[in-house]
Specification:
The protein is of the alpha+beta class. The chain is about 20% helix and about 35% strand. A hairpin with a 4-residue loop joins strand 1 and strand 2.
Length: about 230
């Protein structure tokens, strides 16, 4: 029978924060109480087929002139969010200056100060499905998007870095693709779907987005968020 993996339920959000040494007392509870915004889709989701592509504004041209994103100046902070009613939540290392927008109970988007780069994390997938099925569905949705091009599909694994999943391995499928955004031109997305150890159901999703020239840094940010992912309690 397929095995699914859940976090050790003996931990509370504050206990995990203390073990990880990442957040101060009360931070987890406070952030869990932040309500989701009215937004229901990440801005780097590919636009629907047939949507017209508008010309960039002068401000958009200036933003595209930003040098490529690098990891040299990035620092990370653990960001917790989740459901205060059940105390189920997630903690993920995120670039410390990026602002958080709640998309749903377990899904959040983080945006860089200049608005060029984002990291979206769906921390608890509510309808568990095999990773291959989730990836196939995603590709089907993307193939009709304006300017879609699959750059790579990579299967891999990484050892969990946090205390909750210590000793376990995250199995992952990473899709790297580009698409045409009506407002921002060509966007590049590193989209990863992860299962825990030998479980068959997809546990969480990470997607970093920017421009094609930001690829290396977006991959590094995705790697950091994946390895440091923790579920509480």
């Amino acid at each position: 029978m397929p095995r699914t993996v859940s976090a050790r339920r003996s931990r509370t959000p504050l206990a995990l924060a203390a073990v990880a040494g990442l957040v101060v007392v009360g931070t987890v509870v406070a952030l869990f109480l932040i309500q989701p915004s009215n937004s229901t889709a990440a801005p780097d989701a590919a636009p629907p087929p047939g949507q017209p592509i508008s010309s960039p504004t002068p401000s958009q041209v200036l933003r595209r002139a930003e040098p490529p994103l690098t990891t040299a100046g990035l620092s990370y902070a653990a960001r917790p969010w989740g459901d205060p009613k059940t105390e189920l939540g997630v903690i993920v290392p995120i670039p410390s200056t990026w602002t958080m927008t709640r998309l749903s109970t377990f899904e959040s988007r983080f945006t860089s100060p200049n608005g060029l780069w984002t990291l979206r994390v769906n921390g608890v997938i509510n309808e568990p499905q095999p990773r291959a099925a989730v990836v196939t569905k995603k590709l089907g949705e993307l193939r009709t998007a304006p300017g879609f091009r699959l750059v790579s599909r990579v299967e891999g694994s990484v050892k969990a870095a946090g205390p909750v999943f210590a000793g376990l391995t995250f199995q992952q499928t990473t899709l790297t693709y580009t698409h045409t955004d009506p407002a921002r031109g060509t966007r590049l997305v590193v989209n990863r779907f992860v299962t825990v150890d030998d479980a068959t159901s997809t546990a969480f999703e990470v997607a970093a987005a920017g421009r094609p020239e930001d690829l290396a840094a977006l991959q590094a940010i995705t790697d950091k968020a994946t390895a440091g992912y923790a579920r509480v309690p």
